[in-house]
Write a structure and sequence with these properties.
It is a single chain. By secondary structure, the chain is α/β, with parallel strands linked by helices. It has a single domain, classed as 3-Layer(aba) Sandwich (Uracil-DNA Glycosylase, subunit E). Helices cover 37% and strands 13% of the residues. The protein is built from seven helices and six strands, in the order αββααβαβαββαα. Helix 3 crosses helix 7 and helix 4 crosses helix 5. The N and C termini lie far apart (40 Å).
Length: 210
């Protein structure tokens, strides 16, 4: 909490004078979603500034371009809460709801925020099964496994490990893994648009039929 407010009080020059959201960032997307995409946490000058997850930073630009390309978003950009963006069949969430220092949440932050992710997973459960989770990175993958375990699902043994493109089955549900669209991954080519779109298409194929 302290960091999100400190970041808002000391913005970089390019955002000087802007009024920051500086509060926990809620999930965003389709209320009737069949896919729950889970990121790590809001960016200090992205979601923490705009009030919408993956909005106003380079990671979001990369992500929404891919979501639009595969038909999960109505436009390829996300710059503000009032820009007209809508998701179709997907709810976009995060394991941690406040921007952490250096994008590294502490174990206690994961624990404190897990109930929100669990509630969102329960909403999907009420509307369709199996659920499809898309985990953006290893830490988000672990958060998905923890939520499913707390629901009473039997986690496979040996415990599944994160790998880009992998699909993990937990009970009736599926977790599809992809590298996080951070600049560290996208600028180095570790994650390309083609790679991310392939994962998103895989998630769509796993969605329960109407």
């Amino acid at each position: 909490m302290a960091w999100r407010e400190e970041a808002a009080a000391n913005p970089p020059r390019r955002f000087a004078g802007q009024r920051y959201w500086a509060r926990p960032v809620p999930a965003f997307g389709d209320p009737a979603a069949r896919i729950l995409m889970v990121g790590l946490a809001p960016a200090a000058h992205g979601g923490n500034r705009t009030g919408r997850i993956f909005t106003g930073d380079e990671s979001g630009n990369f992500l929404f371009a891919a979501l639009h390309a595969v038909g999960l978003a109505n436009q390829p950009t996300s710059v503000s809460r009032d820009d007209g963006l809508a998701l179709s069949g997907m709810l976009l969430s995060a394991a941690v709801r406040c921007a952490p220092p250096d994008n590294r949440p502490t174990p206690s932050e994961f624990d404190n925020c897990r109930e929100y992710l669990a509630r969102e997973a329960a909403v999907l459960s009420a509307s369709s099964r199996p659920r499809v989770f898309v985990a953006l990175g290893a830490l988000a993958f672990d958060a998905c496994l923890r939520v499913l375990a707390e629901e009473g699902a039997s986690i496979p043994r040996p415990r599944p490990r994160f790998a880009h493109g992998a699909v993990c089955r937990v009970g009736e549900d599926r977790i599809v893994c992809t590298y996080h669209p951070s600049q560290q991954n996208t600028f180095t080519g570790k994650l390309t648009q083609r790679m991310l779109r392939e994962v998103l298409r895989k998630a769509k194929r796993l969605m329960p039929s109407s």
